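dumping this here before i forget
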Amino acid sequence: MNNKNADRVLYWLLVAVIVMALGAMVTAIWMVYFDTPVPIEFDNKPFPTNQKVYQSGDDVVVYVELCRYTDVPFTLSLEYRNSLVFSVPEMLRPGNHPGCYDINTSVGSIPDSLPPGMYVLHGKAVYEINFLSSRLATWETQPFTVTEKSE
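structure:
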């Protein structure tokens, strides 16, 4: 009789472990693929800039038409691109209120070490939706020129 009870306990223990494993897999799949679709959508790519010619130190302000679906903060990476790729260190930006709106926003300033030339600013925003999932939104500006700073 003892042997039957032990078999029954092991059987139900195995069933419980299998059910918990399946539940964990379904939860992980949901968190990775179905939790939040797109955190942000842009309606006016490439973004127009407030100037066509910049000097080092000038703020780059872009006009963006967007719909934001989450207020999750994001990590922003910027690259100035022409025949070279000049990367700027990543920065954590706060998430704004969800909704659709048009904004003029500063995305950074022209680095002093950026050589003169024609550039496109490429941005990559990574939204950490949860501990298993992140979403990527990319954009770029219209071309602009960087000139040497006049003293």
